[in-house]
Amino acid sequence: MSKLHFGRGVLGLTAALAAGATLLAGPASAATTAPSPAPHSAPGLHTGHAATQSALDGTVAAGAPGVQAQAQAGGDTWFGAAGTADLASGRPFRPGDEFRIGSITKSFVATVLLQLEAEKKLSLDDTMDRLMPGVIQGNGNDGRHITLRQVLNHTSGLFNYTEDPAIRTRMGGQGFLDHRYETYRPQQIVSIALAHPPNFAPGTSWSYSNTNYILAGMVVQKVTGHSYAQEIERRILRPLGLRSTSVPGTSPTIPGRHGRAYSVLFDQTPDRLYDVTEFNPSLAGSAGEMISTTADLNRFFSALLRGRLLPAHQLDEMLTTVSTDPDTPGLRYGLAMMSVRLPCGVTVWGHDGGIFGSSSSAATTRDGRHSLSSNINADWVESPVSPVVAEFCPSSPATSPATTSPATAFRTSSTARTTGF
């Protein structure tokens, strides 16, 4: 069975890294000419975002059903789209269309935990065993030697549960169709991960693991007595007025206006598209279940980086990064925040995310003044040109295929078809 992706960066940060010829998975391909605009491009294009619109058009030309993006720069708001939000009706994307954001969920969860640290309710240097006694143990896993900081920056060494063979079987091909409405509980997911030995001793290396953020959500529950969903709502969504952002839990539907989400379900039927808009996202949980819009994501990351959600010390902790790989110095990972230095010298912060039928990215400058969020309503298409590079380096947007995100949990073998958190 082919492998799957949870957290593929087909739109943004890791694609931008590829454009700078510093790849997680290999050298960047040679530059090519940007594709011609595809049908159904958004009308009224703002000339200041022509390169970004061209990148969106190229994504549809590469095979995506549709793509949307929104930029915020000072008082300037621009929305662009290409292709269709719904293959049956042919309607275009509109501002405010909701979508599943996958691993971008992690940035919300980490923000809550850093707020709790500011309130002296926990410390990043607390061991996981102190926070949740006896939860992490067995098969060489030991919560006495893993800190919360290591969980949040993926240096814990814990096995990524989305790489478990039984889980992979359920998430691909017929397995997805048979189990799409099944509910998973956090402790059940952690037990699956702990059935495997750790990948390395805590703090000695880096490896992206969705298990870390299932545990992070459990820590929020343990410390506050409320679910991480309730704390995100109380601490982030309501204060910022993010009315189109939600934590669905076990609900299979997207509550607001939205397009459809499409998948090829990997290699089972490569010539057939499946509508995967509805499914129970509890397997992703606090590692990747949230729903949002491009405008809400821009508002969240801008507010976060401007210090509206965290005191200065906690924001500095969040933006203290570790190397994801010695061969990828341009890409670093903090506490659910990636930083990428673009070819034009601009550094952006944010996260990528992918889940069935949805591939997303959010990127913002350190001062919070310029943001871009994007979504493809598919999980197998790579953007030939990074919209992030096109937006933040418009004078000479690099043209390079997207590359594997550090938010990768599942990986295809013979094709670029992906899904994930």
UniProtKB/TrEMBL annotation:
Entry's transmembrane regions: none
Highest taxon of source: Bacteria
InterPro entries: AmpC-like, Beta-lactam-related, Beta-lactam/transpept-like
Record-annotated Beta-lactamase-related domain positions: 61-358
Pfam family, one: Beta-lactamase
Alphabetical UniProt keywords: Hydrolase, Signal
Amino acid composition bias (Low complexity), ranges on this chain: 29-46
Signal peptide boundaries: 1-30
Keyword Signal: yes
Gene3D superfamilies found in the cross-reference section: DD-peptidase/beta-lactamase superfamily
EC number, as in UniProt: 3.-.-.-
Protein name, as recorded: Serine hydrolase domain-containing protein
Source organism (scientific name): Streptomyces fildesensis
